[in-house]
Amino acid sequence: MAYTTKQRTLLSSFLVSHAHSHISMREILDFARENTIGTATVYRYLDKLVQDGQLCKYNIDAPDGGTCFQWRDADCHLYHFVCTDCGKCFHVDCPQLKLVDEHIRENHDFQLHLEKTVFRGHCAVCSERGAK
User: Fold this and answer.
1) pLDDT at 9
2) Residue 94 and residue 118: Cα distance in Å, rounded?
3) In what order do the strands lie in the sheet with 118-121?
4) C-alpha to C-alpha distances, 5 to 2, 10, 51, 61, 122, nearest whole angstrom
5) Which of 40, 72, 35 is nearest to 57 (CA)?
6) Which residues have C-beta within 8 Å of that of residue 93, sequence separation ≥ 6?
7) What CA–CA distance (Å, rounded) separates 74 from 90?
């Protein structure tokens, strides 16, 4: 039986406090260092939370690292956009994308795993920077 440690409690509180945003592995490890939580403990606990369905994990191939996390709540199932220039990851709640999901399910007999659906492209800031 798993038991709750001070380190797990700190990590959980940190993740829950960022429930409506994506947290990079770098941000989590920085928090862990500041709170003297070992790297191995972080990885083991994150794996457990993902396995238990409490945490969403995205492998985004961003320039600053490849993984970000989001606490699993009502927004966790949404589509995600990742900027291939700056690595920003954000979720999008768009009725038009929901129609795409419905179309795929109804017309192609295929169920998407929305918690892992990631679109790659360029964010507005990077697009404007590239246009100059």
Assistant:
1) 93
2) 14
3) 89-92, 79-83, 118-121
4) 9, 9, 18, 32, 41
5) 72
6) 75, 78
7) 15
Considering the chain, what is the average pLDDT of its residues? 82
Instruction: Classify residue 93 by burial, with Cβ atoms within 10 Å: 0-12, 13-18, 19+.
Output: exposed
* Claim: this prediction has a pTM higher than 0.85: no
CA–CA dist 45, 39 (Å, integer): 10
Cα 81 from Cα 60, distance rounded (Å): 9
Kindly report, residue by residue over 20-49, the tens digit of the pLDDT: 777 888 889 999 999 999 999 999 999 999
Q: Where are the beta strands (DSSP E) in 1-132?
A: 23-24, 55-62, 65-71, 79-83, 89-92, 118-121
Q: What residue type is 11 in one-letter code?
A: L
What is the number of residues in the chain?
132
Band of residue 107 on the pLDDT scale cut at 50, 70, 90: very high
